[in-house]
Amino acid sequence: MKHHIDISSVLRKTLSCDLYSNLVTRQTGAAVRGQIEELLADARDSGGDAELAVIDFSHVSIIDFSCADEVIAKLLLRYGADDPPKEAYFVFRGVSDDHWDAIESVLERHHLALVIESDDGVQIAGALTEDERRVWGAIFRLGRADHDQITADLADDSSRVAEALNALCHRRLAMVIDGRYVAVGSPRVR
Amino acid sequence: MTTVINVPHSLDDQSFEQVLEQVAPLPADAKLLIDARHTRWASPYGLTALLALGQTRAERATLAVPESDDTASYWSRAAFFQHAAELFELRGDYPKRTSTGESSVLLEITSISKADDVHDVVGRIQQKAQQIITQQLGLEPKATLGFAMTLSEVCQNIIEHAGRGGWVAVQRYDWRNRLGRKVVVIAVCDAGVGFRQSLQSAPGHISTERWDDSRALEEAVIRGVSRYRERGRGQGLAGARKYVGRWNGKLAVRSGTARIAIVPPWDDDVPLAENLPPFPGAQLQVIIPEAVNAAVSRTGGVR
Questions:
Q1: Do B239 and A105 make contact, defined as CB atoms within 8 angstroms?
Q2: What is the ipTM of this complex?
Q3: Chain B residues in contact with A16 (beta carbon < 8 A)
Q4: Inter-chain touch B122–A66, beta carbons under 8 Å
Q5: Where is the domain boundary, A127, A153, A168?
Q6: Using CA atoms, how far apart are residues A87 and B134, in angstroms rounded to an integer?
Q7: One domain, residues A97 and A23
Q8: A45 and A120, same domain (yes or no)
Q9: Do B115 and A27 touch (CB under 8 A)?
Q10: Which residue on chain B is closest to A17 by alpha carbon?
């Protein structure tokens, strides 16, 4: 099930004063993340399986390091853990160059990666190995493929591809549907 | 007995040390007359640090305000007296604060004690910052949001670590003689627990013989260590340092008896000063200069 979560709307619900539109301070970030988790939990209560949440930053003008850490890093860490609250995948939309400094910094610090959707298409970003980038690109290009198809597409070593696929699934950047790999952000999972 | 503390003619981050040298030997409940009558100029750091000094006094100090009308008028426009009236007995005449819309004062002195204050400060600075950073300093538009982020992070330092409120101020200057360029200065001062005590309170912290204010500043400013053990903590000052480095700026942080600085080529400050007169809390200053190209095209050359 897919959810669109507009961060600026969440921010307005979170703050006592709706005049503020910037994603700044650690307290604000923690409150926004709490709201996102509630929305995802509500989806579980309504009987959904795996959730795809599109986190939309389009109407956020500023995000600082502390808020990026609370909203993005902690969300990815919590749902990428071995015992996540539920099976959830994230696509980040509307992330501008202005947001990227803070986001990149927290991704590097926690060795995290995410999927970004922009006018230029869908890409992965953050702390990734070269193998992970190549394999994710192949899955995205192929749409839905098994290990052998991906290995053949890349003309690469089977075990290296398998290792990267495992890492991508563990990091919630790819998922397995009916025995085949699909890249998070691919039209096949929307 | 009242001790008179002379405020220098020009009050900035360097000359404020002269004030602290006079105050440091005195007990917190000593009666002080802080004499700023002959002060003619004060930076945002000087003004916010003066407020922090007032905050440290158990016995409410008297502050003799500048005699110069121009100086008193500027201090008033910067909202200094509004805050000082809560901390000092003010002696002398000073103008009531009126909103002039003066463009050089990007953010008048503002108290910071909770997250909403940071939202307020960032919201207020945004529009002015865009105009100053891109048009007057000639920096890329990208620098504007980085400036707001840096301001947010240095203000949060008060909320997260000081244990009491502090103040922030932002001002634009034309440093014709010193640098030949325009600059924007952020000053954030508090008289809270300071970096050493904050980091000491971290679970598992072990104080070695070498543990002091300068080590604490190195840990916090250079290595991004926080009293919180979460991996994501400590990024605020690291982010501010990165921003300052990217735009050839200067970051200086004083706490306790030490002061650490990220010094750009255009400045001759020392990277680390130790054995300074003790002063509680943390006092921080960020300086972002005009782009060299912009200064050259404006003046025909950098002096």
A1: yes
A2: 0.77
A3: 116
A4: no
A5: A127
A6: 44
A7: yes
A8: yes
A9: yes
A10: B116
Our CA-based measurement puts residue B153 at a distance from the nearest CA of chain A, in whole angstroms, of 7
* A22/B238 touch (CB, cutoff 8 Å), yes or no: no
Q: What are the chain A neighbours of B145 within 8 Å (beta carbons)?
A: 61-62, 98
Q: Which domain holds residue A181?
A: 128-190
- Nearest by CB to B152, which of A24, A61, A69? A24
Tell whether A53 and A66 lie within a shared domain.
yes
Q: What is the pLDDT along chain B (303 residues), one digit of tens a residue?
A: 899 999 999 999 999 999 999 999 999 899 999 999 999 999 999 999 999 999 999 999 999 999 999 999 999 999 999 999 999 999 999 988 766 555 577 789 999 999 889 999 998 888 788 888 888 889 988 888 889 999 999 999 888 777 788 999 999 988 877 788 899 999 999 999 888 988 887 777 777 778 899 999 998 888 877 766 676 676 788 889 989 999 999 999 999 999 999 999 999 999 999 999 999 999 999 999 998 776 666 666 544
